Amino acid sequence: MADVWQSSMDHAVAVARKAGEMVRGALKDDRTVMTKSSAVDLVTQTDQKVEQLIIQSVKEKFPTHRFIGEESVAAGESCNLTDDPTWIIDPIDGTTNFVHAFPFVAVSIGFSVNKQVEFGVVYSCLEDKMFTARRGRGAFCNGEPLQVSEQTDALVTHLTCVFRVRGAGTAAINMCLVASGCAEAYYEIGIHVWDVAAGSLIVSEAGGVLLDVDGGDVDLMSRRIVAANNRTIAERIVKEIESFTLQRDDAPLQS
Ligand SMILES: O=P(O)(O)O[C@H]1[C@H](O)[C@@H](O)[C@H](O)[C@@H](O)[C@@H]1O
Ligand SMILES: [Mg+2]
Fold this sequence. Notes:
Inositol_monoPase_Li-sen, binds ligand LZGB4YJL, glucose-6-phosphatase activity, glycerol-2-phosphatase activity, 33% helix
């Protein structure tokens, strides 16, 4: 990757840390749910404030860049990836965890150019772990290189009756667990591009494999993903799970 994106990445790390401070503060006194479109799809004021903080701060520094943010899309903005530099933001990944004070909550920022993720930043706010990856340059946690595990006996961070299962309740942290070698795989159908844009690069830069749940190439707009330490385990998951299709994130808006 040309060094031209380094200052954007440095900014992403700085703003993710600032956002994390806001999340930690709000955990003490502002976890009120504003809307609830389903039992698991919650929104708090903090989600919205954190997204605004990130977007404002990026706009000041990089006025031509575009954004796809969970809360902006919820408010009606489009969710189309173009070739332009685009910040893909999940202000609080793990909002349900946040509301319950379950201590796995992340700020997730992916950055794509020509529809390819160039860097990913996931800040696990309560663990104070800053996960970063740049395309072609490895993945790191608090500056230490990450490597997926060599285990063939899989611990998986999502539901299946075949593997041993653990789940952090946030897609971004689940993927960082795979990248860190603490779990062998993660899969989910129903996530959105902002949940996985950053985490997917962190997994692949740590040596992991990404697949669609049908075994093809992963498509970040398709709302489905398998991330694993190696291809054998990724393909086993593809074989074991029953896949289904959801409306894509970039489906035309209903008028
Ligand atoms: O907390 P958010 O950002 O809404 O993301 C969660 C997603 O909505 C759920 O479907 C997933 O199960 C979680 O892993 C996500 O992180
Ligand atoms: Mg999320």
